[in-house]
Write the structure tokens for this entry.
Amino acid sequence: METKNCPPLLEINSPFPILVLSLYSLYNKSQRTKERRCVIYMIQELDRLNIDAYHEIVECITSALDARDPYTAGHSERVSDLAQMICGEMGIAGECQNDIHVAAHLHDIGKIGIPDAVLNKPERLTDEEWEIMKEHPAIGAEILSKSSMLSGLIDIVLHHHERFDGKGYPDGLKGAEISVGARIIAICDSIDAMTSTRRYRKALGFDICYQEIEKNLGKMYDPVIGRFVLDNWDKVIAVLQKREDE
């Protein structure tokens, strides 16, 4: 066996060792050489860092995920920035704010288990492909369950595609059944997706995005959180434009 095809040994005090091995396993099954190199690098970096570098570790993981698709590179960071701003403005603080912030970084971690042919398809997905894509929240939750430190984020990551009217996935939760963190990330995820260029369409303007959010209050989005976001729309734009300038 060639050692380059095996994950490096992890120190017993390495942060998130089980999480990293789970990520490696999913990548290794895919036999994607470029992706395996990304994960091996991530494993080496995680093994070197200590728990004080918690947020750097999370950003390292999301950077490896973003590397799979240049069209969504930076998406997790922008969603996290938006979620952080909303939490701050709404008075959500402490551990709850931190959980939402970190979960926003990791909300799409399950896409690591989605085939490239689906994840990077240049056209809109077929119904069958869309069903495969919809598996990513559950995959993400399974990955996070391997780490005791990140297990508290499972509910947020699992349910960030639920809709306020109960027509979302994977569990069809409705209203207050959906955690506040998942409701916040759902709207942040949509805002960044709409205002970013994708393979199959150009980015929508902020005015159109505003209208779409407003039209779907009480349907896709929590009406209270959604209205708060719209009332602070200038801050939403500022957060996204700041990232563009960096």
Observations:
- Residues 13-68 form one domain.
